[in-house]
Amino acid sequence: MTRIAATTLSLAVLSSLPVCLAADGADVQPSTSPTARQDVSLLSVHGLYATSIVATGRVQSLVSARIGPRVSGRLFALGTSANGQPLDAGVPVKAGQVLFELDKTTFQNHLILSTAQLESAKAALHQVSAPARQERIDQIKQELAQLEVQLADKVRERDRYKKLVEVEKTLPPRRLEESEVSVSTLTAQKLSAQARLTEAQSGGAPADVIVAQARVKEAEAAVEVAATDLRDATVTAPFDGVVTQRFKSIGDYIVNMPPTDVLEVISLQKLEAEIAVPESYLPAVQSNALQLTLRSPLLKQALKLPITRVVEQVDPMKGTFNVRVAIPADKRQGLIPGAFVTADLPLVENSGGVVAPARAIVYGTGKPWVMVARDGKMARQEVELGDKLSEGIVVTAGLRDGDKIVMGPADQLVDGKELPAYLK
Length: 424
Hints:
Largest sheet: 7 strands, antiparallel
Strand content: 25-35%
CATH architecture of the domain at 6-51 and 352-423: Beta Barrel
Strand order of the largest sheet: 16-15-19-5-14-18-17
Shape: elongated
Structural class: alpha+beta
Helix content: 25-40%
Radius of gyration: 50 Å
């Protein structure tokens, strides 16, 4: 709540002193007739704090998006509305409706290429993991049998040469060395054939199978990425709304990094009024569940809505804070984002007291009191006092905003006395 400046209040109080109020609230000027004494007058007291304020603000959408593609490409086409109208500012859209498309040629080629690579990887996996054909196994077995026969012959030959060289010494050592090399070579060939037979019978080496499986998964991921890129070349509306801006035209190249916006779409179903309120009213708004009344030329009738939330941050340039008011879709009438609105914001009952003229306060042995007008009579009312102002005093208890103090000579102020006729 805002505390009214003391000087302003005092001047307001003094300026009102010569004015008398009739019972029906009409102003009655003091009589200048020498035959009529009008020594008693009434003065309405007013609170230190306003009981309501009028603030202004704008309507905004809670759901809005600047929409661009996830992938890069040339803008190929803009979407159209239900009646065939090209999408541009002011055109409504529905969730899932096509907003725009990029040229899909590159994305389609990537999908074709990655699909072919996947088929190749699957074929390689089948080759190393599928059971070998029987003829291949038979061929290796036959080769192995021949190697065993050759190896046996070379072993016998080596043993015979060894006897001739070492015992009988009738053969040059070179012949024994050549025979031993032949035995070693055939032994290595036999071991290799045995390994190939084992591999053929088991369907492939475990390491080869693992590598082939990994390549298949890699190719599958590439296909999924290519398919996603092709899908995302067509961009659809994320929600029902209206296009408010178009940033790009057909033929423009759109990049995804940094992101490029093509259209801006806002929702008309989730609106909110943002009202700027002077910062002095922040305590009153924070501590109370208040309702305000929105008015706008776009509304056929005013909307009475509760405050949704208070933004507890003061604009240092404007000295205001914002309150937000949700506007239900079924009550928005003609309101649209950006619309100017005024808000009548009632505050809590005045709790800061009222201002009374210092000369209206009567001091005695008990509490200070004033004479008030009540039901056409004078009534003594005890009061509690607060701060003293330049030409008035704050009454913190005993008086309320709008009460009327009876002012006049002390001999004219009697508790229970009828008010003069000119004040009724």
